[in-house]
């Protein structure tokens, strides 16, 4: 969790990925514009790359992930959703999470307690696997690496409060 985010850096990262950012990346009225931009970039990507993947893993419940998945539906992309069936109280995340689940053919839940909700959303019980939480599975054996080793390995750019990894795909960055 970032507590003192430098929004100039966030807007710079957004600009590199999707063009000029909306005036305020955090405003509710910007969600539609952001969805549109992400959808359009992934539509271009899937149209020329859909045959290159056997399965695309989708993590979470954010509207950006929803847009990327939605853009892949007409191309028959096979999605595997991680963290389906969960609930975020007081947020719109549930709508996006459930829609990602509906677009996915394989589901990886964090705990068995999420299975009944996911089965109700999907209307079936097939291809649902309880794998545990990705962030907690190996916490006891976690050995952090040096920051510079991480940055070099993943070709990441580090600036105060934000670390992002850039991989160019045509004009889009993912």
How would you characterize the overall build of this protein?
With 174 residues, this protein is an alpha/beta fold. 39% of the residues lie in helices and 16% in strands. The strands form three sheets. A four-stranded parallel beta sheet has the order 1-2-3-4, covered by helices on one side. It has a two-stranded antiparallel sheet with strand order 5-6. It has a two-stranded antiparallel ribbon with strand order 7-8. β3, α5 and β4 form a beta-alpha-beta unit. α2 packs parallel to α3 and α3 packs parallel to α4. The relative contact order is 0.14. The N terminus and C terminus are likely disordered.
Secondary-structure class: alpha/beta
What is the overall number of helices? 6
Global geometry: globular
Please mark out the parts with pLDDT under 50 across 5 or more consecutive residues, or reply none: 1-7, 160-174
Helix and strand element order: HHEHEHEHEHEEEE
Biggest sheet strand order reads 1-2-3-4
Give the total of beta strands: 8
Distance between the termini: 21 Å
Q: How many whole angstroms does the radius of gyration measure?
A: 17 Å
**Could you tell me the mean pLDDT?**
78
């Amino acid at each position: 969790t970032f507590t003192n985010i430098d929004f100039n850096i966030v807007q710079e990262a957004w600009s590199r990925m999707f063009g000029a950012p909306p005036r305020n990346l955090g405003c509710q009225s910007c969600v539609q514009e952001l969805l549109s931009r992400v959808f359009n970039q992934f539509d271009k990507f899937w149209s020329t790359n859909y045959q290159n993947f056997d399965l695309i893993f989708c993590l979470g419940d954010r509207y950006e992930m929803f847009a990327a998945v939605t853009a892949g539906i007409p191309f028959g992309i096979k999605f595997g959703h991680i963290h389906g069936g969960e609930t975020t109280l007081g947020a719109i995340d549930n709508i996006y999470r459930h829609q990602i689940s509906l677009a996915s053919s394989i589901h990886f839940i964090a705990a068995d307690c999420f299975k009944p909700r996911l089965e109700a959303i999907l209307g079936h019980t097939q291809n649902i696997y309880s794998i545990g939480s990705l962030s907690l599975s190996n916490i006891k054996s976690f050995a952090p690496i040096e920051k510079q080793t991480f940055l070099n390995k993943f070709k990441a750019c580090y600036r105060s409060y934000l670390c992002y990894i850039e991989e160019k795909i045509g004009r889009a960055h993912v």
